[in-house]
Structures are given as C-alpha cells and as structure tokens.
Amino acid sequence: MIRKHILAALITATALTVAAPAFAVDEYNVSNGVTLTGHSLGMHGIDPVSMFKSEAPGLGDAVHTSTHDGVDYYFASAETKDQFDANPEAFLPQFGGFCAFGIYVGKKLDGDVRFADIVDGKLYLFVNAAIFEKYLENKDDVIAGAFDKWPSIRSTAVGDL
C-alpha cells in the first residue's frame, strides 16, 4: 500500500516537472498571491476601464471580478466590468502590464498605473516618473522597440532577464 502511494507521488511529481515548461512564465505583471477565484490579480486591483474613462485610475472591487487569460481584474462597477468583458483587448495594458520602457530595454519591470499613457487607443504602463519622462523623450521609438522585443521575452521568467 505504501509503495503504491510513493509510486503515485513520484508519477505526479514527474508529470508536474515535465509539464511545467508548458505553462506561461511571467507573461502578465500580477500581484503576489491569489484572488478568491484562485487566479493572480492584474493591474494591482485597478479597474482597467477607468484608465480610459477618467482622469485618475479607479480602484476595482472584488465584487466585480473578470478573468482573462488566467488573470483576474477588478472593476469599480458592473458597468465597467461589462465593458471589459465585451472587449478585453481594448482595455488591457500592453506587454502584460509590464513597464513599456522596461520591455524596450529587455526587462520586465512593474507597470504602475500612476505613470501611464494611452497611444492610439492602447494603454502603456511605466515603472516610475523618471522612466516615464525618459519614455516621453522618444515615445514612438520606445513603443516600436518594445513591440519588437516583446515576442522574444514574453514567456521568459522575470529573473531570467
């Protein structure tokens, strides 16, 4: 009986070890821990729709949660949740919510909603005020360079960059 349990544990451990590379690695900038649904939290709980609709980012509420690609997003109201659900790609930050300038230089840095820009209807986040100012010096090149770099680092763990 004990041998069966040990064998089952070894098979399970082996299967998880082999399958692990198939899972996406750090493709989204998420908060540590999980939400009530068991998923990670995107945009630090800020309502992504609010980034397009108001002057200041709006804090979301777990009562209005939507899951997209395995990441939970909180919304300030049922209305903004419904808008997101109808077209998530219209509201999600580019580069999984990582700092656009960081992606441009080949790093995955935390994207902070206080330092954000919307260009051609796309949301870009930045790690801090200094990096945001650096981005503003050459927006077009930074955005184009980040889009060029993103495919090669998208599934690379943060610690490996």
Describe what is shown at a glance.
The protein is an alpha+beta fold. The protein is built from 6 helices and 7 strands, in the order αββαβββααββαα.
Record keyword descriptors for this entry.
161 residues, alpha+beta, three-stranded mixed β-sheet, two-stranded antiparallel ribbon, 6 helices, globular, disordered N terminus
Write the layout of secondary structure elements.
Blueprint: H1 2-19, E1 40-41, E2 46-47, H2 50-53, E3 58-59, E4 61-68, E5 71-75, H3 78-86, H4 100-104, E6 112-119, E7 122-126, H5 129-136, H6 139-153
Number of strands: 7
Question: Helical element count?
Answer: 6
- Spans of at least 5 consecutive residues with low confidence: 3-23
Largest sheet: 3 strands, mixed
- What is the H/E string? HEEHEEEHHEEHH
Through-space gap between termini: 46 Å
Strand content: 15-25%
Kindly state the percentage of residues in helix.
25-40%
Mean pLDDT comes to 86
Give the C-alpha Rg.
18 Å
Structural class based on helices, strands and sheet pairing = alpha+beta
What is the global morphology? globular
Strand order of the largest sheet: 1-5-4
